[in-house]
Design brief:
Strand order of the largest sheet: 2-10-9-8-7-3-4
Shape: globular
Order of helices and strands: HEHHEHEHEEEHEHEHEEHHHEEHEEH
Strand content: 15-25%
Structural class: alpha/beta
Oligomer: single chain
CATH superfamily of the largest domain: Type I PLP-dependent aspartate aminotransferase-like (Major domain)
Number of helices: 13
CATH architecture of the largest domain: 3-Layer(aba) Sandwich
Bound molecules: pyridoxal-5'-phosphate
Number of strands: 14
Number of domains: 2
Low-confidence stretches: 2-8
Largest sheet: 7 strands, mixed
Distance between the termini: 37 Å
Mean pLDDT: 95
Radius of gyration: 21 Å
């Protein structure tokens, strides 16, 4: 989030609460966005004609299987609008991306939650929750807030268990951060089947959350439907140019990816070493669980805010003992990690 009035009151100087990319966009993307402000008096006619071929060439994909949108949020919402209506249901793993039930409710459809295992998607549980009403099965991979990753073999098993009238929506907002070789982004499934889409985002690895650019890879009939219910002018001119420049700057993307992986391992190790459980994470954030008394995560959140550090707590009771920390720049991630460990020790000693 942009540090605004509310944060200024709390004097938040290290904001690690919204899974943004603290390294920022490529300097080339920034420059391209700025240059594009010369043309703000113009509508941007059909940005897909420019961005879709760039995406297809960058990722080796087919142009007729790509649609663009105002962040992946816009695309997820459009997919829900196209495929859900009263009497239908969206199925997800119970502690998956917490915003997703709203996509169902917004279309008067049901949101069904399958039990998980330690915040990891349980494929058998998901398949056992399928009903005749299920139209969408949603999977964030990696997931948010847990950071959990479903390996390729399990992803394919999930898809194999779905009837062909059910659309598997794989949310790959954090895809580029995964370093585990067992991961599959789902693009091969899209190519081979008629009922799979993958959504992707420029907000995370490309550091363009404020520009609002996302894309979806799917079968042509789904892409056509998504395009039909899109806005007439779906992207702002500076956003388009920032996205194009970001795609070309592979060096910046690789830098963000490798530094984030390094910080993820380092913070995980330090916190685990201090007795704070960190769930194995594959995105640009980690989910930690505080042992001890139930209120510890809340107390920790308050104490960190008093030191100008904001992490994310969640209203869902399943996350009562948890805090999510976005991996920021090196110094801020290390400062936050050290503060968590120090406060954790103080809080536990105060009770001993
Ligand atoms: C799992 C997941 N999907 C989608 C989004 C939305 O991203 P975008 O900025 O592309 O709309 C987020 C944002 O944090 C997310 O965590």
């Amino acid at each position: 989030m942009v540090v605004g009035a509310a944060d200024a009151v709390a004097k938040i100087s290290i904001a690690l609460d919204s899974n943004e990319n603290a390294f920022g966009p490529s300097p080339k993307a920034r420059a391209a966005a700025l240059a594009a402000t010369e043309h703000l008096e113009r509508y941007l006619e059909n940005p897909a004609r420019i961005l879709v071929p760039a995406l297809a060439s960058c990722y080796g994909l087919e142009e007729d299987r790509i649609a663009i949108g105002f962040g992946s949020d816009d695309l997820l919402a459009r997919i829900a609008r196209a495929y859900l209506q009263p009497g239908t249901a969206l199925l997800r793993s119970q502690n998956s991306y917490l915003k997703v039930p709203n996509y169902a409710y917004g279309n008067d459809a049901d949101a069904v939650a399958a039990p998980d295992r330690d915040f990891c998607t349980d494929v058998d549980a998901m398949l056992s929750c399928l009903t005749a009403e299920t139209r969408i099965v949603y999977l964030a991979n990696p997931d948010n807030p847990s950071g959990a990753m479903l390996p390729g073999t399990e992803l394919r098993r999930l898809h194999a268990g779905l009837p062909c009238n059910v659309l598997l929506v794989i949310d790959g907002a954090y895809s580029e951060y995964v370093t585990d070789p067992a991961y599959e982004d789902g693009e091969a499934l899209v190519r081979a089947h008629d009922n799979v889409v993958v959504t992707r985002s420029f907000s995370k690895i490309h550091g363009l959350a404020g520009a609002r650019v996302g894309w979806v890879y799917g079968p042509p009939h789904v892409i056509d439907t998504i395009n039909r219910i899109g806005l007439t002018f779906p992207l702002a001119t500076p956003s388009l140019h920032a996205a194009l420049a970001a795609l070309e700057d592979r060096e910046h993307r690789d830098y963000v990816r490798s530094e984030t992986a390094l910080l993820r391992d380092e913070a995980t190790q330090k916190l685990n070493g201090a007795g704070i459980h960190v769930y194995p994470g594959h995105g640009n954030f980690i989910l930690m669980e505080m042992g001890g008394r139930e209120s510890l995560a809340r107390e920790m959140d308050t104490a960190l805010r008093a030191e100008g550090i904001s992490l994310r707590r969640f209203a869902s009771p399943a996350f009562d003992r948890c805090l999510r920390m976005t991996l920021g720049r090196h110094a801020e991630t290390r400062t936050a990690t050290d503060a968590i460990i120090r406060l954790y020790q103080d809080m536990r000693e105060a009770r001993a």
